[in-house]
Amino acid sequence: MRFDSLVLDDQRHLKWRALDPIEQVLMILCGICISGFSTVVLLDVVTRAIGTPWLLAQEVTMTFFVYGIFAGVAAATRRNDHLYLAVLAESMTGTKRLAFELFNRTVVLAVAICMTWYGYVNFLDGFKSLRMPSMTPLASLYIAVPICGALVALFTIEQMVNGFRHGFADPKGAPDHESIGSEAL
Questions:
Q1: Helix, strand, coil % in the chain, rounded to nearest 5
Q2: pLDDT, tens digit, for every residue of 31-51?
Q3: CA atoms lying within 13 Å on the CB side of residue 89
Q4: Using CA of residue 98, residue 99, residue 104, residue 109, what is the dihedral sign?
Q5: How far is CA 58 from CA 13, 43, 50, 51, 98, in A?
Q6: Taking Cα atoms as reference points, which of 90, 36, 105, 87 lies closest to residue 66?
Q7: Distance (Å, rounded) from C-alpha 72 to C-alpha 27?
Q8: Residue 178: which pLDDT band, with cuts at 50, 70 and 90?
Q9: pTM as predicted
Q10: Are 72 and 82 contacting, i.e. CB atoms less than 8 angstroms apart?
């Protein structure tokens, strides 16, 4: 039995099963980050209220926040839950929809490539600055950006390839699935 309860089967025609474990891990990481963020903020408030503030609390909170955001961006891209003119694309059929969907994903791919490249440059630069009070390099936070960019690029390419081959419309109830696939060839 596979452990993939957090992987959405929505728009399965746009996904490769081989990438399902990555989506599963991203969703678990999002849950850990949300829980950790909430717990640390609560502990920060409590320790300040009793007069013994926890000095690392804001640094730990920021870490959970940053990793949660970038893991969420990658997961949302795989799940196609991000904002990208979906309603407009869903109102189209045939070649017009194929072109629009590919254009949308090309823009997302360009942003992902920029995130990967410039995030990596920023990561390398982050070894020059330290976080206080732990004295860990800022690179420990910045590494989330290029990893997110690489995952967004991977998931976008996955959707573009599968959308071009099978059509972008969900085959369950979308009549233009066959027309998109035949016009793309």
A1: 70, 0, 25
A2: 999 999 999 999 999 999 999
A3: 20
A4: positive
A5: 42, 11, 17, 16, 46
A6: 36
A7: 8
A8: very low
A9: 0.84
A10: no
